[in-house]
Amino acid sequence: TVQLEMKALWEEFNQLGTEMISWLRVGATDEVPWAAVRAPSPPHSVPRYAFHSSAWLVAGKADPTTPGRVHFHPDSPAKGAQWMRQIVSFDKLKLTNNLLDDNGHIILSSMHRYQPRLHVVFVDPRKDSERYAQENFKSFIFTETQFTAVTAYQNHRITQLKIASNPFAKGFRESDPDSWPISPRPLLSVPTWSRSSLRPCVLKGSTE
Amino acid sequence: TVQLEMKALWEEFNQLGTEMISWLRVGATDEVPWAAVRAPSPPHSVPRYAFHSSAWLVAGKADPTTPGRVHFHPDSPAKGAQWMRQIVSFDKLKLTNNLLDDNGHIILSSMHRYQPRLHVVFVDPRKDSERYAQENFKSFIFTETQFTAVTAYQNHRITQLKIASNPFAKGFRESDPDSWPISPRPLLSVPTWSRSSLRPCVLKGSTE
DNA sequence: TTCTTGTCACCTAGGTGTTAATAT
DNA sequence: ATATTAACACCTAGGTGACAAGAA
Fold it and tell me: Collapsing DSSP states into helix, strand and coil, what is residue A141?
């Protein structure tokens, strides 16, 4: 079945002799084939870090870890051809340091170091799929994506690189609008962080 | 396989001791199950309209029609459960009166009347699926969504209703910001046109 | 002292009708 | 005359770091 959203407003326009495009809720049932998931580091205990004299050092050990949440890409489940059609952006993934977070954000501890991981999971149609759970996914790790979670930048050079490379921080650039101090120009002609809701090194608390 | 987007920038950040979230292109192959499609009126010849003394009248007949394009919802193909998860918005659908349009927009003729149609198409896995093409879709029509394509509003009351009901036109409202002249308040607490790229009665030419 | 939170001005990105200029 | 285009101010929506105030 299909329902028309904002039916009353549609009719109000229609009475005057016009119209536009609608929101619909369409229905059917079926199985799921593929899912893309992104997770933070495994829920092991991890050391605490501190920034001193321009360097990050281990400042403690084995702090209790935060809840091990994962982020499901909003397009999942979808089949392989769908994922291939365009770049898969995780710009809806958000971080928080609020242990009681209620928005499904990934919970991290400030001043701790993390390694993002990507899992591509095969949604097994078999009834006893749990038995094969070990072979039904493939993981990817890019070590250059490691990061330390903070509530405010510790390293001023990170701040400067962020300002230089993120279009949303253009208001803090000092030089000519057509030249950047650090990153070469071509990097910014591609959408970089413009679609990211994350502040790379900065945790945001819940708004509640 | 998986590739990391913006690898150079990642490494530049990483050298300073930090990181963030990435864009990825993930690969796999599979079949397609369901698709949602939206189309304008059928490519028959249609009459021309004119607005005179507050009414639309037929002002000609059987103009040659425009190319009969259809708009595939960007989430398609997807299975039923996926479509059910949230309202299916066609806010990426755009109209144009440019017969040479190269952006895949729906081509319409100004001063002509149209009936939007929604088709839910079953992607048949059988090899001889063309034989069953007649039974592999279901169409939906909401007559209250009919509209006349124009390049500028003809009916001033349409303009006023648009201003009153579309949050993006809030700058043209005259009364208190907390009261609207025509539509009752509750209508606007829901996202209405805020996600639509269409000017309900106005065609946009290509930017080329 | 060190870390965290909330507010702010400044951006990107793009959806509105208005208006003046142009085309038909 | 009428229809179309392009530039504009004004919005929504939300991603930035700066900064001041607060918390641990």
Answer: strand
pTM of the model as a whole: 0.69
Nearest DNA or RNA nucleotide to B169 (CA to C1') = C16
B90 touches strand C (CB under 7 A): no
A203 CA vs D21 C1’ separation (Å) = 18
Q: How far apart are CA A104 and CA A101, in angstroms?
A: 7
Contact flag A145-B198 (C-beta cutoff 8 Å): no
Are B169 and B163 spatial neighbours (Cβ–Cβ below 8 Å)? yes
Nucleotides on chain C that have an atom closer than 7 A to a protein CB are: 2-6, 9-20
pLDDT single digits (tens) B144-168 = 667 777 777 877 777 777 787 778 8
The residue behind tokens 């205990």 is A45
β-partners of residue A117 are A39, A141
With a cut of 60, say whether residue A88 has pLDDT above it: yes
pLDDT at A165 over 80: no
Nearest to A49 by CA among A172, A207, A201, A164: A201
Of all residues in chain B, the percent with pLDDT exceeding 70 is 44
